[in-house]
């Protein structure tokens, strides 16, 4: 079953992925038949995957990467620690000001006196 991808960008990305997969298979000198057997799918499924068919399951993709020795790439895909867009959005969501609780405590202290909370360590650094 071929899934129709309406986005030209998504279609292009899948086709590029398929071409990269094919190149990786050929560099490892694995035939389509041997690759399909090792991945546990039919040769026609591998051909569809290499053409960038969006209807090929993620399980097939995972098995193809496993056969190529690249399964860690799937596990690391969109890792929150390296997701630049996600990190930027997190940064933008940071508060512009410090919690008002600390300001209220500052008003109750004597001038020049340091305010500490349970969150401060011995050096005065809060965690």
Compact description:
This protein is mostly helical and 127 residues long.
Written overview of the protein:
With 127 residues, the chain is mainly alpha-helical. The chain has seven helices and no strands. The chain has helices spanning 8-27, 32-39, 43-51, 58-68, 71-75, 84-92, 100-108. The mean pLDDT is 84.
Name its key features:
single chain; 127 residues; 434 Repressor (Amino-terminal Domain); 7 helices; 56% helix
Proportion of strand residues:
under 5%
Low-pLDDT runs: none
Strands, count: 0
Main beta sheet: none
Overall 3D shape: elongated
Mean pLDDT rating: 84
What Rg do the Cα atoms give?
26 Å
H/E element sequence: HHHHHHH
For the termini, the CA-CA separation is 54 Å
- Decide which structural class fits the backbone: mainly alpha
CATH topology of one domain: 434 Repressor (Amino-terminal Domain)
CATH structural class of one domain: Mainly Alpha
Count of DSSP H/I helices: 7
Q: What portion of residues is helical?
A: 55-70%
Q: What is the level-2 CATH architecture name of one domain?
A: Orthogonal Bundle
The CATH homology group name of one domain: lambda repressor-like DNA-binding domains
């Amino acid at each position: 079953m071929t899934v129709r991808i309406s986005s030209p960008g998504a279609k292009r990305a899948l086709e590029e992925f398929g071409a990269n997969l094919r190149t990786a298979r050929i560099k490892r000198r694995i035939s389509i038949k041997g690759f399909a057997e090792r991945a546990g799918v039919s040769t026609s499924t591998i051909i569809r995957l290499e053409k960038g068919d969006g209807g090929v399951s993620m399980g097939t993709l995972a098995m193809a990467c496993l056969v190529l020795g690249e399964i860690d790439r799937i596990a690391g895909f969109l890792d929150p620690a390296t997701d630049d867009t996600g990190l930027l959005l997190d940064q933008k969501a940071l508060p512009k000001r410090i919690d008002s609780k600390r300001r209220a405590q500052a008003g109750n202290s004597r001038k020049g006196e340091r305010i500490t909370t349970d969150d401060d360590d011995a050096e005065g650094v809060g965690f």
